[in-house]
Amino acid sequence: MLRLAVTTRAETFERLREPLDARGIEVVHVRPTERTIPLTDAPTAEVDEPASDAGSAPFPAVDVGFVYPSRVMEGGAVDALLGVPWVNDREAILTSRNKAGVLARLSRAGLPVPETVLVSNPADEDALVDAAEGIGFPLVVKPNSTTRGVGVARVVDVDSLLGVTDYLDLIHEFPATGDRSFLLQAYLPDARDYRAMVVDGRYVGAVERRLPEPDRAAGKWKHNVHRGAEARGVDLPPDRRRLAERAAEALGIDYLGVDLLVAGDRAVVSETNARPTVDAATKYEPGFFDDLAALIERTADGAQ
Which of 2, 50, 89, 288 has the lowest tally of Cβ within 10 angstroms? Predict the structure, then answer.
């Protein structure tokens, strides 16, 4: 049986385990963070899964990995020790994490994206204000490489923009800050927020993420599940399915969550995620796990 290393123990791990086991793939957890990692201990088939979760245990022997660890320093050690190919390797994770790079690539490929300006800090205040006024208020300020809506703010005028960027300046002054860039992005009022999933170039399902009505009435607007939004399975029309597939194709990423904002007849790709959470099976097209198992097997075969 093929052994698959999964580097998260959250919902994705539990939702993968049984369906993939039924398709001849054993899912095992490899814990990459918040532990010590012995760099001279080779992975071993004798390490059982509970032991591999211990704070200093060696890793189990596996055949293929499922999404490179999100913390790339630890990921480099895990990758070297396991010595296996990954469904979404380091390059895929870094490509998707760079929101500016994603939007630039998709725009060059002719895909619709929100009007966006990358700001490399420290930037001249006049240039910053000119860029914001060129987009128009209100607009969204978002860090270039965070996830789950962290640090994203809506600003309504120059004063509120400069208030947010003052805080970013303070953070970026810290010498260890790796990414000192952020985005100014057009705000699409009343846009509906969708996450479409693409596996091996094919659309396999989508959810709409939406805050509960009381939250929206209170002025909240970020439809992130980690911020309290609910994810409901939806059936996207063919043009939006194809948009998600084209985004994955343009980025060259096999397993991708594509975030779509839809306002009226306009749909744009706002972000992508190469480490998307696997949702409940009922929210995907029939055959989702067959497609995912086939991708895992093809990735493993590529190393032989």
Answer: 50
State whether 119 and 64 are in the same domain.
Answer: no
The parent domain of residue 265 ranges over 189-296
| Entry pTM | 0.90
Total residues found in the chain within this entry: 304
Please give the backbone phi and psi of residue 210, each rounded to the nearest 5 degrees, phi first.
Answer: -145, 130
**DSSP H/E element including 245:** helix 238-251
CATH number at residue 49: 3.40.50
Q: What are the pLDDT digits (tens) for 152-204?
A: 999 999 999 999 998 888 888 776 567 889 999 999 988 999 999 999 999 99
CATH number of the domain to which 235 belongs: 3.30.470.20
Pairwise CA distance, residues 181 & 99, whole Å = 10
Whether the Cβ atoms of residue 224 and residue 238 lie closer than 8 Å to each other: no
Alpha carbons 52 and 72: distance in angstroms, whole number? 20
